[in-house]
Amino acid sequence: MNNKKLFSLIIFLGLFIYLILRGIHVQMLHDSIATFFRYVIINKFLPYYSEWSANNHYLNSMLMWGSYKLFGASPLALKLPNILSFPFYVFFVSKIAGIIKNPYRYWGFFISMI
């Protein structure tokens, strides 16, 4: 494993642990609570069947609904889809950053996107 991949993995693991701890210890904010009560709990989050609002992010509401049905209404269960999507995000950011040959631009892009 080269230094670039190793350093990227260390950044990913550190941030992933941080996000897990943040998901456990930080209380839910008004935005997430409003999404839960206005869309998730009443099963009306799909486009054209829900209230038109900037707060309803369809994919996030759908994943929150699935997590709610599987694990209940605990704050960690409602944050779980966002936490578990982080590895996919980092994977694709690293694939896009792999196109960049200049190491300064690579790290600038990778760190700013993460």
List the helices and strands and how they pair.
Elements: H1 3-25, H2 30-40, H3 58-71, H4 75-97, H5 103-113
Helix pairs in contact: 1-4, 2-3, 3-4
Shape: elongated
> Which secondary-structure class do the elements indicate?
mainly alpha
Question: If you average the pLDDT, what whole number results?
Answer: 88
Radius of gyration over all CA atoms, rounded: 17 Å
- Measured between the Cα atoms of the first and last residue, the distance is 21 Å
| Number of DSSP strand runs | 0
Helix content: over 70%
Characterization of the model:
The chain has 114 residues and is an all-alpha fold. Helices cover 72% and strands 0% of the residues. It contains 5 helices and no strands. The chain has helices at residues 3-25, 30-40, 58-71, 75-97, 103-113. Helix 1 runs antiparallel to helix 4 (75-97), helix 2 (30-40) packs across helix 3 and helix 3 packs across helix 4 (75-97). The protein starts with a helix and ends with a helix. 12% of the residues are buried. The mean pLDDT is 88.
